[in-house]
Amino acid sequence: MRSLDIGATGMLAQQMNVDVISNNIANMTTTGFKKQRAAFQDLIYQNIDRPGSTSSDAGTTVPSGLQLGLGVRSGAVYRMHGQGAIRLTENPLDVAITGEGFLQVDLPSGQTAYTRDGTLQVNENGELVTTQGYTINPGITVPANATDIDINESGEVLVSVPGQTAPTNVGQLQLANFINPVGLEAMGDNLYLETDASGAPTTGNPNEDEFGGIRQGALEQSNVNVVEEITELITAQRAYEMNSRVISTSDEMMQTTSQLR
Amino acid sequence: MENSLYIGLSKQMVLRNHMDLISNNIANMNTTGYRSQHLLFEEAISDPRGSDDALSYVLDKGQYHDTTPGSMEYTGNQLDIAVEGKGYFGVRGPGGNVMYSRSGDMQMDATGTLTNSNGRPIATIGGGNIIIPQGSTEIKIDENGMVSNQNGQLGQIMLVEFENEQELKPVGYNLYSSENEGTPAQESRIKQGMLERSNVRPVVEMTNMIDTLRTYQSLQNAMRTENDRLRSAIQTLTGQ
Questions:
Q1: Full domain range(s) for residue A116
Q2: N or C terminus of chain A with fewer C-beta within 10 Å?
Q3: Interface predicted TM-score of the whole assembly (ipTM), two decimals
Q4: What is the pTM of this model?
Q5: What is the DSSP string of A73-132?
Q6: Do A52 and B179 touch (CB under 8 A)?
Q7: Model confidence over A118-144: pLDDT tens digits?
Q8: Does residue A152 share a domain with residue A90?
């Protein structure tokens, strides 16, 4: 019976759905995390009675035919890049991006990664780095004697140095944006890599063109909506159960057949 | 004399196909743009010995898909589209022929070509593909399917309507094929940032499934009774 296998494809798909949802819930409080969704596709069809085949000598044809689908497959898991809520932290090195754009990060391998996580820190050389210690690109060095750091909406980093009345501009935070951010490859640690599907990055200063602004002393929370995830989880779990019912029903039908005497 | 056995058997064969169809619907409960399918039964009359009583067998002659729109889900992705109304958008299938779909989770490939989630190019009214140039910042898709970026229009997604939607044959991967080309959409509109969920109604499918199983079992019982009747007839007639 095909329905046994079809039920199994349904259970596999829903299991993957639950995996994706649980990852979203686990990253509920991860800074800058973007939730994911599993997308499914129907499998190929088997023609039992071909549509358009002749049904009589007079040339009449079968209008719709009988085509049995063979189940479901998981097509893609894609990311939803909606804005997360902004939470105030009052930490001068925390920055949140309000709107489009990613901060650029230099990986030890020489590649550039992209992130929405603005938890910046200063390393031993005074450079602005991410929580992993990777420098941000373009690099910004804060003088050792700086007493105050101010990052304005357009990403200019201004420091107050003792003995000077006016703050000094030590650099400019730049953002990168992609035509299709859904196509970015997640590499963990809140970092993304450019792919063919994402397109090449366009860089620019915050608050210019399509780029979002920078908000100092705040962090972007994940865009996971817990209520939505829980309802999705319930749907996935019930769908899983219904698919298992398909299997037990098919089993019962086969059992009925085997009792034929 | 064995007719009743064969009538029961004909229905059982149909019920098995029905069960396959129901399980495919349940498996695709969360498939974007999927439309639930239902079986059409037909009565096949047979009159084997010219007797007065015609015998009705059951045949599964075809199937149809439920064309009620599925619920719309807001995703906010620039490359997600949903079709409002009875239209379908075109996807270039293998060999260049156009197939139709309602599952609008579109993507972009390495060359910037707009594709469906399976990597097949989205068909345009002009015949070419829609290519999103490097450096595009914001993609807008209007109600008629015109795709544009900040510098202007890039191409129009082929959106067609069919007088008889049952002409569309599902081929898998959320695509339908049709021999008829369809007419340019009049009443359908494209909504950007939305996706259409499947229109499978789990309650209906579960009820159908239980019904299928019970009918199958009761037919089995009827066949068993008939078998017992035949046996006792033979026993009585042969005097054993």
A1: 86-220
A2: C
A3: 0.75
A4: 0.81
A5: EEEEEEE--PPPPEEE---TTBEEEESB-EEEEE-TTS-EEEE---B-EE-TTSBEE-TT
A6: yes
A7: 999 999 999 999 999 999 989 999 998
A8: yes
